[in-house]
Automatic annotation (TrEMBL):
Residues spanning the membrane: none
Record-given protein name: N-acetyltransferase domain-containing protein
GO BP, one annotated term: aminoglycoside antibiotic catabolic process
Annotated ranges, domain N-acetyltransferase: 1-146
Molecular function terms, GO-annotated: aminoglycoside N-acetyltransferase activity
Source species, domain of life: Bacteria
Length: 389
């Protein structure tokens, strides 16, 4: 058995294994699949010329607290059923993480078929989503707004330009963990028909402050994504949705915020809501991550964190964070130590969970003084990810 890169001429074998393992076609079509397969790092386990298992990694980037981090997007992790439980995927995942570290990809994301399965490789849930289904008669009255909504479309280059600028502002300032979308990613969304219909909210000064990507599918109004820089824009976009109540039976929505956001935004959130944990991340290179991370009052605090990482041993050990300097040490100099798994460290630094909660749920260990020190330096910006398409 040989672990090696999958050649360009062998992409057909990736597709064959994908189709057998996942049993559904690529939603963006074969041209889209071909593009991403050609641009991915492709690792496979072969027996002779036969591909037994595979892992693809896309070269992407995300915004964490407004800072750009290179990200390895893991996709099409699969083996033929007869080779499951033989350790093939573990070999591939470990080799893929080494490649990501060597390529400067500091974090990695994936969409799991099983959360416990990927926890074994250091990944952890970092965002919670809510999907809504609202009968047309129950669409809320959001009141009046001073601005107006303009219709745009992906066929109009101006539309994508406006949406892209708004998305970047949102991803950099309002959330942590969002994709930094390049031209290829916007084209991917267009292939999936997510940008066909666009509604953009402009305030009374004509400034664009929010947008919505949607489609009308027979009698269903589908919201693919709603981005608002303030509550006025959010209300204005929901008023636009409500104006369709005589045309549709119901509205289904995703990528509109968390359950907490819905509870705060709607005067009567009495409709069907489903919470979903559908994306995971891990830190690939702890030292590089800590050096780049935007701590609050970084220069005023000395912190120590002891990391446990069974899959990526280069992350194991005790790290000292002193101002902008991060280094490995044998023992702390006076301050207490936060002992944590790589999974818990990722969740905490992304803003998904606070340090105190991790200690409570026994995902980390620290004294009360140490917990307080970490609570002060981790910013209060919640993580989210809208690109689980």
């Amino acid at each position: 058995m040989e672990l090696r890169e999958i050649k360009d001429s062998e992409i057909g074998k990736i597709k064959e294994l994908r189709d057998y393992a996942f049993r559904f076609p690529a939603s963006g079509g074969e041209a889209d699949f071909q593009y991403w397969a050609e641009n991915a790092r492709r690792l496979g386990l072969f027996y002779g010329e036969h591909l037994l298992a595979q892992v693809l990694t896309y070269p992407l980037a995300v915004s964490i607290l407004g800072e750009r981090f290179s990200m390895g997007g893991v996709a099409y992790v699969a083996s033929f059923p007869e080779y499951r439980n033989a350790g093939l995927i573990r070999q591939l995942m470990e080799a893929s993480l080494e490649q990501m570290r060597d390529n400067g990809q500091i974090v990695s994301y994936l969409s799991p078929f099983s959360i416990p399965f990927y926890r074994k490789f250091g990944y952890e849930v970092f965002t919670e989503k809510v999907e809504l289904e609202i009968p047309a008669h129950a669409l809320p009255d959001m009141g009046t707004v001073p601005g107006r909504v303009m219709r745009m479309t992906s066929d109009d280059g101006t539309g994508i330009s406006v949406v892209r600028e708004l998305y970047n502002r949102f991803a950099l300032t309002k959330k942590s963990g969002m994709m930094m979308r390049d031209d290829a990613w916007w084209l991917r969304m267009a292939r999936r028909k997510y940008t066909k219909e666009i509604a953009v909210y402009c305030d009374m000064n004509g400034t664009t402050m929010g947008y919505m990507l949607f489609t009308l599918d027979h009698e269903v109004f589908k919201i693919h994504e709603l981005v608002a820089l303030n509550y006025e824009a959010e209300k204005g976009l929901w008023r636009f949705v409500s104006s369709h109540n005589m045309m549709v039976d119901r509205v289904v929505a995703k990528n509109v915020g968390s359950l907490r956001d819905i509870a705060l935004a709607f005067p009567s959130p009495d409709f069907q809501k489903q919470e979903i944990l559908d994306f995971m991340m891990r830190i690939v290179d702890v030292q590089a991550f800590l050096e780049k991370y935007r701590f609050v009052n970084r220069s005023e605090t000395v912190l120590y964190v002891e990391v446990e990482d069974e899959t990526a041993p280069w992350n194991e050990g005790l790290f000292e964070i002193r101002g902008s300097m991060v280094r490995r040490v044998e023992k702390p100099e006076g301050a207490g130590v936060l002992s944590i798994t790589i999974q818990g460290l990722g969740q905490m630094m992304m803003g998904f969970v606070r340090p105190r909660d991790l200690v409570y749920y026994e995902k980390a260990q620290a004294s009360e003084i140490t917990i307080e020190a970490w609570e002060k330096v981790i910013p209060h910006m919640r993580s989210d990810f809208y690109d689980a398409y």
